[in-house]
Structure formats: C-alpha cells, structure tokens
Write a structure and sequence with these properties.
Blueprint (H helix, E strand, L loop, with lengths): L8 H6 L7 E4 L3 E5 L9 E5 L11 H22 L3 E5 L15 E9 L2 E3 L11 H10 L2
Antiparallel strand pairs: 1-2, 2-3, 3-5, 4-5, 5-6
Helix pairs in contact: 2-3
The chain binds adenosine monophosphate and zinc ion.
Length: about 140
C-alpha cells in the first residue's frame, strides 16, 4: 500500500498540504483538533502513513497512536478541566467512519451545571481553537 493516499484529507494534513490545529506531532503520529468538535478540545490522533482504519493498521503503529491518545486525554483532564474522556474509533462506513484514514477520537467531557455536557459546538469557533491547542500542548 502507498505511504500516502493522494485523495485522503488526513494524508494531506500529515503532509502539511492542508492546515490543521495541531496539538502533537512526532515522526509517526499526528494529533489535531476536530473541526466539527463534539466538545471543547475534541481531538483526532492519526498515524502519518495511510491505513484505512484501526482493523487494518499494523500493531506497532496502532499502539503508538493510542499512546498519544492517552497523553492527550491526560492533558485534557489536567489542562482543560475535563472530568471524563471518551476514546473511540469507528471502523468502516456502517460503523460511522467518514474519513477512511485510521483516527482515534479523544473527546473530553465536562461537568456543566448538573449534567455532563457534550454539545459545546456553539463555543468552538476558529477564534478559540488556537487557545485550546496551547492549553493541551502545555499539559502534554
Ligand atoms: P469519523 O466519522 O470517525 O470518520 O470522524 C471523522 C472526523 O474527522 C469528523 O469528526 C470530522 O469532523 C473530522 N474532520 C474531517 N475533516 C477534518 C479536517 N480537515 N480537520 C479536522 N477534522 C476533520
Ligand atoms: Zn490517508
């Protein structure tokens, strides 16, 4: 399989051809904020090389992606004041996968009033994203 898929949006992000709000990068793994966030700090962790999903990714790369997801979840708890985190990955379109490049969602949860808030989209325009990137990076 080719290292990058020319038609894949996450491959383009991995190659810096499309801008993303990056929070973590090493030679194999990249993490950035989801542009359609389910909550403040909602991030995606991807391998830089193209693999379709969790089920088709070599174990060593899959483990590295989850190592970074763990770090970001910890940073969300420490830096953003999250009170819980959902870590999830969708495999194939019937399970909700819309971008066919393996990615792990890291979705912080917050206590707001008397409930755990998940829908904070209204607070998450582009102006806020650089500040969120900074808080997470400072807590990695
Ligand atoms: P899934 O439905 O599990 O495949 O998740 C794909 C996620 O990628 C969705 O939550 C989208 O909001 C997100 N997404 C799509 N394009 C971009 C992009 N250019 N930058 C950041 N997130 C994106
Ligand atoms: Zn790709």
């Amino acid at each position: 399989m080719a290292k990058y898929d020319a038609n894949c949006i996450f491959c383009q992000i991995a190659q810096d051809k499309i801008k993303a709000y990056k929070i973590y990068e090493d030679d194999q793994v990249l993490a950035f904020l989801d542009t359609n966030p389910k909550s403040m700090g909602h991030a995606l962790v991807i391998p830089k090389v193209h693999h379709d999903n969790f089920l088709t990714t070599p174990k060593d790369i899959m483990h590295k992606v989850y190592d970074v997801a763990q770090k970001i979840g910890q940073a969300d708890m420490n830096g953003l004041g999250a009170v819980g985190i959902n870590i999830l990955t969708n495999c194939y379109e019937p399970a909700g996968q819309s971008v066919m490049h393996f990615h792990v969602h890291v979705i912080p949860r917050y206590l707001t009033g008397e409930r755990y808030q998940i829908d904070m989209k209204e607070n998450l325009d582009d102006k806020n994203l650089p500040a969120i990137v900074k808080v997470i990076k400072d807590n990695l």
